[in-house]
Amino acid sequence: MSRVTMAEHAGFCYGVKRAVEMAEQAAASGKRCVMLGSLIHNDSVVRHLESMGLTSVSRPEEVPEGAAVIIRSHGEPRAVHEALRARGEILDATCPNVSRIHRIVAEAEQAGRQPVIIGTPNHPEITAIAGWCAHPVVLENAEALEKWLEKEPENRGKPLTLVSQTTAARKSWDLCVEKAKKECTNLKVFDTICSATCKRQEAAQALAAQSDAMIVIGDRKSSNTRRLAELCAALCPQVLWIERAEDLEPSNLYGKASIGITAGASTPGWIIKEVYDKMSDEIM
Ligand code: F3S
After folding, report:
1. pLDDT tens digit string along 106-144?
2. Among the atoms of ligand 1, which is closest to the Cα of residue 194?
3. 235: DSSP letter
4. CA-CA 20 to 30 A from 263: which of 58, 88, 217, 245?
5. Do residues 144 and 175 lie in contact, with contact meaning Cβ atoms separated by under 8 Å?
6. Could you tell me the strand order of the sheet in which 137-139 lies?
7. In degrees, to the nearest 5, what angle opens at C-alpha 229 toward C-alphas 228 and 233?
8. How far is CA 151 from CA 135, 136, 155, 274, in A?
9. Could you identify the atom of ligand 1 that is nearest to the CA of residue 200?
């Protein structure tokens, strides 16, 4: 018999829930509507929306004449907004926390400051944030920040505005802020890590620390799920990262007295329930 515990704050965050509900409402209204890119990082959810009649396009030029377009929760660069606005109606499902970062970097640049974006360079959220300034600097972590400051020492005296990817690990961001505060003379720091991310990570870590195994549910493309898996792996001897219930091989968990479950921000409740039910049937 194993004890299975669900972490608090697992699954859809506010921004993802809002985006999915906007898309569902658009589909239910019967209006012609397409999604630009993956609405959220979860293929099961995207397939569910497609089954309701929405289609996906990958570029603004592919939006059919007269169709409304839904902008994903990660947001899009300013140029994409402008191209879409010229074509027709926009349903902006960008998470409000992400839109706030767009405003911060755009206003910073307008005020003559250099936006410095701390995050994974090719992640769609970071590409979108960078796309709200003309000359963004994107740095992955404190090491990259250090190299940037060493390579061009004059950067230390520039007016810098530091923002973070919403899903960054707190420790990594804190190191960046510490370094920047120590070395830069004209610095503004905006802590833009999302509190939903912090709460999910803290709850997962607390559970991982008292579990023999952790199941982390989330799409392989989801960077917040990857971070959850990494954080749990530092505290728990066995971590299984699965996308859905079919991926779970119960025999991998036989003999574990305590098993924890958490899920990334793009994992819908129905997938979490399927995993929990499978665990109940086969392990508990
Ligand atoms: Fe928004 Fe935070 Fe979710 S930034 S999309 S509420 S993880």
Report:
1. 999 999 999 999 999 999 999 999 999 999 999 999 999
2. 2
3. T
4. 58
5. no
6. 137-139, 114-118, 159-164, 186-189
7. 120
8. 17, 17, 9, 51
9. 7
- The CA distance from 174 to 35, in Å, is 35
**CA-CA distance, 151 to 96, in Å (whole number)?**
35
Look up residue 65 and give its two tokens: 């004449």
The amino acid occupying position 116 is V
pLDDT greater than 80 at residue 198:
yes
The CB of 16 under 6 Å from ligand 1? The reply is yes
Q: Which pair of tokens denotes residue 197?
A: 């991310």
Query: How much is the pTM?
Result: 0.88
User: Ligand 1 in contact with 15 (CB < 6 A)?
Assistant: yes
Distance 247 CA to ligand 1 centre (A): 26
Q: Which tokens in the block code for residue 266?
A: 């793009």
Nearest to 55 by CA among 95, 86, 124, 68: 68
40 pocket-lining for ligand 1 (C-beta < 6 Å): no
14 lines ligand 1 (CB under 6 A): yes
Sheet strands (E) in the chain: 3-6, 33-36, 55-57, 68-71, 90-92, 114-118, 137-139, 159-164, 186-189, 213-217, 239-242, 258-263
In the block, tokens 């920040």 appear at 145
Residue with token string 């579990």: 211
